[in-house]
Amino acid sequence: MPRGTGNLTGVPFPEAAREAVGNAQLRRNLAKATGTIRAKRAAVVGELPDWAELRAAGAAIKDDVLAHLDTHLTRFEAAATERGSTVHWARDADEANRIVTDLIAATGAREVVKVKSMATAEIGLNEALESAGIAAVETDLAELIVQLGHDKPSHILVPAIHRNRAEIRAIFAATMDADLTRDLTDDPRALAEAARAHLRRKFLAAEVAVSGANFAVADTGGLVVVESEGNGRMCLSLPHTLISVVGIEKLIPTWQDLEVFLQLLPRSSTGERMNPYTSVWTGPTEGQTSHIVLVDNGRTATLADPDGRAALRCIRCSACLNSCPVYERTGGHAYGSTYPGPIGAVLSPQLTGVDRNPTLPYASSLCGVCLDVCPVAIDIPSMLVHLRAHTPKPPTESATMRAAAWAMSNHNRWRRLLRAGRFAKALTRRNTAPPPLSAWTRARDLPQPPPQTFRDWWASR
Question: Which residue intervals define the domain LUD in the entry (predicted)?
Fold first, then answer.
């Protein structure tokens, strides 16, 4: 089985969510951060009269990639090889980790710098490198905070969204060199300056860098990273060896297609009209060795599901997380997965199997806001319903559903059941059903039956 995207904690979502909701500080941090990003996104999206057309174009381009993925992959490999990169293929996380570890070990390096990459988090690369005696230094500010705090990311775009400034200052003071944190305050500028000084030492000493890619251009063999801090530019240009770990769904057919996604992505992710740094590289720079590791890790299995393959359109913008009422109250750790939020609730079960993430498809109210904000129009609510149909069901639930189907299949039986609902009120107490239905109502309000059914009301008139 692929590793990395399964449940990382072993705690089912309902239990983890219950604990997270009880953390008032976490809820305040999440509400402030997601509310700010939502407002910025709405403002810049509202500026574009053709936003709906852009979304449709992005979805169509990604669907074309998925329909002809084999052709685009071979085109990309040929173009990247022609321009001086070595392309490696990895069927799963273990194979990808082995390839990257062997490439780093061959250089003799014991420390590497990294551009933030969901793919490397998915496959557990940092842990694999650590077991081989190689330290991986995250250079994205939020990823650095998470790493120094011995924490786990809780958001696709802002991994440290669950931390406030005081907590970040405490992490820096405890882990960075003393000369960088002397008299350090929790002012954002001061925190950023300390991180910049800390990372500059790492950049100048690094011989190897590991990157991800937001997009891989099939017709040129080029890779694209968009980011806000400049750390990506440093990682891509300074080290002598560059290893890029890329999910096979990140392909787009042509260079011209970037004009669509470089409008969709920044507006949906950071609420900006364009990213401060957009780095594009096609092959190695002078004196550099370039490797590209193309990772499957469950993607072709997802592609084979006609009801779920559209999840591979995802461009990792995190708009669905920032808009989801469930995520805003529980945070990303409750999902127990590399990919949290609505997209994680569909993508993680698809990549690893529903049996490894059986509760994630239920981590949603199905309100539909994730579909409304998705820049490539992924119908996440419909996919969640599709996945719920494939999750293991307890015997009591299956029996209840069979009984309900039997009652609803005959209008006379259904009418009598509705009338009987008036007497069910006597069996309930404070919106809680008796066992075994009490397990269901522990997490839901049980609506009280009306004194008269609609059919009886209609007949009386």
Answer: 74-286
Among 128, 121, 127, 151, which residue's Cα sits nearest to residue 5?
A: 121
Each residue's pLDDT tens digit, 95-126: 999 999 999 999 999 999 999 889 999 999 99
DSSP string, 367-392: --HHHHH-TT---HHHHHHHHHTTS-
Quote the CA–CA distance of 368 and 342 in Å, as a whole number: 10
Q: How far apart are the first and last CA of the chain?
A: 62
Q: Is 218 found in the same domain as 102?
A: yes
Q: Which residues on neighbouring strands pair with residue 114, listed in sequence order? A: 138, 210
Domain that includes residue 62, residue range: 46-299
Burial (Cβ within 10 Å: 0-12, 13-18, ≥19) of residue 25 = exposed
Considering the domain boundaries, does residue 419 fall inside one?
yes
Report d(CA 216, CA 225) in Å as an integer. 9
Task: Judge contact between 39 and 367, C-beta under 8 A.
Answer: no
- Rounded-to-integer distance, Cα 218 and Cα 282, Å: 11
pLDDT, tens only, 140-189: 999 999 999 999 999 998 899 899 999 999 999 999 999 999 999 999 99
Strand partners, 216: 223, 251
333 assigned to some structural domain: no
Q: Which of 284, 299, 314 is the last residue of a domain?
A: 299
Taking every pair of C-alpha atoms in the chain, what is the biggest distance, in angstroms?
Answer: 88
Kindly state whether residues 272 and 407 are assigned to the same domain: no
